[in-house]
Amino acid sequence: MRLAKLASLVSALLLSGTLSGTALAQSKVVTEAEARALHQQILTIDTHVDIGRGYATHLLDPGGFTKAQVDLPKMRAGGLDAVFLIVYVGQGALTPEAYQQAAATAENSYQAIMRMIRAYPEQVGLAKTAAEVEALHAVGKRIVLLGMENAYPLGDSVKEVAKWAERGIRYVSFTHIGHNQFSGSSNPRSDLNDAEQDPGLSALGRQLVAELNRYGILIDVSHMGKKSMLEAIKLSKAPVIASHSGAMSVHANLRNLDDEQLDAIKANGGVAQMVAFRSYVAELDPGLNAEISKLREKYLPNGWANANEQDRNSYDTELASLRKQFPDVTVAQFVDHIDYSVQRLGIEHVGIASDFDGGGGVQGWEDASETLNVTWELMRRGYTKAQIEALWGGNVLRILRQAEQVAAKRQ
Length: 411
What we know:
Elements: H1 2-16, H2 32-39, E1 45-49, H3 72-78, E2 82-88, H4 96-119, E3 124-126, H5 130-138, E4 142-149, H6 161-167, E5 169-173, H7 203-214, E6 218-220, H8 226-235, E7 241-245, H9 259-268, E8 271-275, H10 278-281, H11 286-299, H12 309-325, H13 331-345, E9 350-353, H14 372-380, H15 385-410
Parallel strand pairs: 1-2, 2-4, 3-4, 4-5, 5-6, 7-8, 8-9
Helix pairs in contact: 1-13, 2-14, 8-9, 11-12
């Protein structure tokens, strides 16, 4: 209850303009033309974008307009320059057989991303360093960076880190939903017999911190339990990233970061990327929640991964219709999280993420084609060009460079 009351109070203060200096200019009039002119001048990096089933095949060709929230035409339309595409594996059992299967899943995701890059070399390139991001942007290409969500497929050692570093992975989140061999999760799973409390980093998890530092890979603290996250930050010699999280003080959700966690990221020199994921941003309308539950029972009784294409499409179509019938979470509410974090941490420790194609999206930023709307909302609140540049990518490039420098000293 105390968290809920605090979140309500902070939201009210943000809306009234009494908490954040930037929020005081919320009523500033900015035309779309003015927003577009500024947006086109800055490098925009979305630090968390998932890939769908059949990615870079005839089932989902990101070179054309697709049902996915991110593809190359939508990136061009919305002025989204760079994305971290994610090698994701859901949490499973901690057994040799399960590790092997997880490694195979990670390999399939990586190969899918590389197929896309090879298919459209004139449009997009893979960046492994901050300098490569800037070089690709300078010649007008879209940019792909790689992140690994859940270290689970690394198995029972850290030997595979070197391979993934060479391939271009530039951040690794230790966990997803459920504790694993490295760390506690912010969302333990009873079906995996997880302890309710975060157990903290394991001995292997502490090894992973050092190995990621050694290879210039950012430690991603999103999805980590608080105890594990604070331990990782204390051990890391390089800045960390929360690749897609929200501010707990704006909206209470297990996936969001409380003030102590945000402060730890600042003290480390890292960046907290605020995420446009509805349920992390604000409370969903109760009526909408009830209708979504019915849709899931109807079309996704065994989860998204086990549903056929027809049921997935029906779910998406009916969900889009429902969102028009009920009050929705908006891009303005998303920017409230940015406002709060900037006020607490300073502009240099905050960034922007969507979690598109992994559940992300809010009204006004439903897919990459609407990316301009985030910049537009920031301008309405009085953020300057330099501040918007920092939020959209400058801060991420800084910590990438710092991680590279730490790695150079440790090789």
